[in-house]
Amino acid sequence: MSPRIGVVTFPGSLDDRDAQRAIRLAGAEAVALWHADHDLQGVDAIVLPGGFSYGDYLRPGAIAAVSPIMTEVVSAANAGMPVLGICNGFQVLVEAHLLPGGLIRNAHQQFIRRDQKLVVENARTAWTSEFEQGEEITIPLKNGDGGYIADAETLKRIEGEGLVAFRYAGVNPNGSLNDIAGLTNERGNVVGLMPHPEHAVEAGFGPDTPEAMRSGLDGAKFFTSAVNALAARV
User: Of 68, 114, 122, 125, most Cβ neighbours within 10 A?
Assistant: First the structure.
């Protein structure tokens, strides 16, 4: 039986359908979850997608972090369920204290859209095990509030404990401290990042590569990593 991976839709989510498609392409069943419910429908993993949940009122991700479904997501994550937060989903994860630090307005005060090079810093998580440590990948990025911040003690801890999952390479697009593009928790089941792997899973729709335009598929490994991690549990 294929694993079932839930995708939460909040008011203002934009990339929930894209995440569902990426899950299906990875060989899993995509299950739509609704922000106002307390039912995870028996899923095996969860994706919090990109967008502008609740219109980014108060702070991006702040209201979504206290929505009804997040009570269940936090409990499931703390019990070991794989959870991936993409862009706004990453913002939700830090607001829900499933990942440390915070995300603020880009340093140049502008929304940015680019195909971004990343270095895989931690290939031991449920969402990164198909990568190689130190591998360079290209993933689309689109955000206005992607600057990662944390106090000095927190930065020292996440660096020392290997909790940086991805780091920006070539250029830091939003002023994130230590070039941090994504994080994992200590257990390795929760991962958040600002770039959008769900937009690099299908030929003809991904980033350009030296081989061909729109042929980049680096995002697919996020979802196949989760599928394989779930299969290994059976």
Answer: 125
What domain count does the chain have? 1
The catalytic residue among 95, 198, 199, 202 is 198
Domain that holds residue 184: 4-233
Separation CA 66–CA 98 (nearest Å): 12
pLDDT, tens digit, 9 for 90 and up, residues 197-223: 999 999 999 998 888 899 999 999 999
Sign of the CA dihedral with 55 first, then 72, 166, and 161 last: positive
Annotated active-site residue 199? The verdict is no
Q: Which of 87, 95, 121, 199 is catalytic?
A: 87
Per the annotation, the verdict on 202 as an active-site residue is: no
Is 39 within 8 Å of 66 (Cβ atoms)?
no
Cβ atoms < 10 Å from Cβ of 120? 22
147-149 vs 83-86, strand pairing mode = unpaired
What's the CA gap between 74 and 54, in Å, rounded?
19
Q: CA dihedral defined by 176, 207, 81, 40, rounded to 10 degrees?
A: 110
Tell me the CATH number at 226: 3.40.50.880
- What is the spatial distance between Cα 127 and Cα 228, in angstroms, rounded to a whole number? 9
Q: What is the pTM of this model?
A: 0.97
